[in-house]
Design a protein that fits this description.
With 333 residues, the protein is α/β, with parallel strands linked by helices. It is 22% helix and 28% strand. The chain is built from three helices and 24 strands. It has a nine-stranded parallel beta sheet with strand order 7-4-1-20-17-14-12-10-8, covered by helices on one side. The chain has an eight-stranded parallel beta sheet with strand order 5-2-21-18-15-13-11-9, with no helix packed on it. A five-stranded parallel beta sheet has the order 6-3-22-19-16, with no helix packed on it. The protein is globular. The termini are far apart. The N terminus and C terminus are likely disordered.
Length: 333
Amino acid sequence: MWIPDRSCFHTKPLGETMSTLSRLTTRLAVVASFAALLTAACNTDSNGPSSLNLSADRGHAEHENDNDNDNDNDNAARGSSSGFSVLANAAVTCTGGSVVGSVGTFLTAPPGAITLTEGCLVSGAQDIGGPAAVSAYNAFLSQYAALAPKLGDNCPVITGTLAGANLAPGVYCVSSEAKTGVLTLSGNANSTWLIKVPSGALTGTSFSVVLAGGAQACNVTWWVDAAVTMTDSDLKGNVLAGAAITVTRGTFAGNAWAGADGVGDVTFTQAAVVGCGSGRGGRGDDGDHDKGKCNQGVGNGPEGCDPGNSNHRHGSNDENGGTPGNPGRKGGH
């Protein structure tokens, strides 16, 4: 058996030895306390997170709340709550052309009225002052108020016709000067635009909105202080107007909601309207979109839908400028 060499031991007086032990005990207590703190900080058991982790969680929760607010603003801008493609305070009039989606008025008849003449086709419901239309109109009023310019907003007004302008996703204010030419909105399928006319009307002649990069019409919102009048134009986006909306010829992809300030009718004349309330208003940069089925027969005029879903991408042969009764289509497709 190995016996240690006594020369390895160093003897000290008893008092000095006790003092050394006391210092060692104190150091061990400090180390143990620090280890306990580290254990608590890293603890992730069922008793809950530590104070350090909780601080990080609170920061993450704050970011989540910010994202929720952004989503609320996007939803308001998109105007997705009503389910109606066209809403007026009192009257909707459609002469020729077509409307894909449901049409409603806030007021009952009279003066509430939906008047379709010269073969105007409406693919959805027609509700004159019924509960669904009233509820939708009230939702529109709430969205209009939520998006209205507020004191202290930083939104410099872009003047001019907007011809040649290319806008990234965001919030913009534009003047009430008449619009013409081509406005390009460049983004992706999730991008949103809110374009406000804070004072006056939105008018346009031969004015076109082009969507680039996969941008969707239903993610564009036009907030207008007064009336909206488009002639021979290709407008894209949901229109929330303080007064009337009038579209003569041309095309319109989006919802048309009029009369937030108390008086406002919607009038379409020989216009092709595809609303976001129909679920088929989100046209991208290819200018094409899937069409839903309808009961219209070939030869009854363009309706923005596909009879029987027989040709889901390109519609019936009187769509897209084709000739009724001719199996061919304009442009050879």
